[in-house]
Amino acid sequence: MAEGAAPIPVDKDKFKLGFIGAGNMAASIATGLVKLGILPHSRIFTAHRNPESRVAFTSLGIKVFQHNHEVVGECDVIVFSVKPQILQDVILELGPLLSQDKLLVSVAVAPKLKVLQKWVGHARLIRVFPSTACAVGEAAIAMHLGEDATEEDGELIANLFGAVGKVWKLEEKLSDAAGIIGGAGPAFVYIAIEAMADGGVAAGLPRDIALGFAAQAFYGAAAMVMKTGKHPGELKDKVASPGGTTIAGIHELEKGAFRATMMNAVVASTRRCHEMSQ
After folding, report:
1. Cis peptide preceding 130, ω within 30 of 0
2. Domain total for the chain?
3. pLDDT tens for residues 92-101?
4. CA distances from 238 to 8, 229, 232, 247 (A)
5. Which of 123, 206, 218, 262 is most buried, most CB within 10 Å of its CB?
6. Pairing state between β 63-65 and 44-47
7. Which has the closest alpha carbon to 51: 22, 28, 73?
8. What is the DSSP string of 5-48?
9. Residue ranges for the binding site?
10. Is the same domain home to 29 and 119?
11. Of 135, 170, 205, at which residue does a domain stop?
């Protein structure tokens, strides 16, 4: 493409989506898109040589190539879902195949757009921060656009990922913290669910019942925050009656510095994200 030429618009009804990197994140996104009926499996592609790693995609009917360059050649929208440590090598290996005719999307926690643009050679890029909750359509997703990404490009990706979660368009300077809460945050919640279930077992519940109640408690609480728009502190106060069972448990959480520990976990993960982006 000649320098300064406008990108070729992606046909939103016919575009093909390719994943460079066939790990858990790519599989989660692809699973959500196919099972929720957003994209047919015939329009999604990836590459992997390991037969065991291909199963998550082939079980959905998705074609898995042997090589990444085959994915780029086939697709209009390319999602880089490899680990940040090898992203530069992967991009440089694909080199001129990543022309401005392709809409490129990075779901890696690092690096930032200016670095990606340098590696790719153009700025028709979008950074997206999803999570494995894409597989069930419930991810919290931050995104922002590169300089040459058009409004139509942004709308396409926002709609695509919005089908497997909730998307916030943010300035890139906010992306690390938002991406950590949305991407790493579920891991923190999984630990909290497991701990609550362990408490149920310690109090006499069978393991499966304790886990089911704990998971539903978190799911219901999150739904209350999202659907009512009320501050979680206000919702907490409505549950914690004077001298009751809930406030007794909250007292124990406060003694264990539960809130401070959660805050520290987010800050520590965000700091690590900053380090990886340099």
Report:
1. no
2. 2
3. 999 999 999 9
4. 54, 14, 10, 11
5. 123
6. parallel
7. 22
8. PPPPPP-TTT--EEEES-SHHHHHHHHHHHHTTSS-GGGEEEE-
9. 20-25, 68
10. yes
11. 170
Q: By CB neighbour count within 10 A (0-12 exposed, 13-18 middle, 19+ buried), where does 273 fall?
A: buried
Give bridge partners of residue 169 from the DSSP assignment: 143
The 10s digit of each residue's pLDDT in 36-56 is: 999 999 999 999 988 888 999
Asked if 38 and 49 touch (Cβ cutoff 8 Å), the reply is: no
Question: What pTM, to 2 d.p., does this model score?
Answer: 0.86
Residues in the annotated binding site for NADP(+): 20-25
Rounded CA-CA distance 211/206 in Å is 9
Specify the pairing of strand 165-169 against strand 139-145: parallel
- Helix, strand, coil fractions of the chain, as percent rounded to 5: 60, 15, 30
What the block records as the tokens of 271 is: 């700091």
3-state SS class at 210 = helix
Number of Cβ within 10 Å of residue 62's Cβ equals 26
Is residue 175 classed as helix, strand or coil in its secondary structure?
A: helix
Q: Domain with 43 in it: what CATH number?
A: 3.40.50.720
**Binding-site residues from annotation for NADPH:** 68
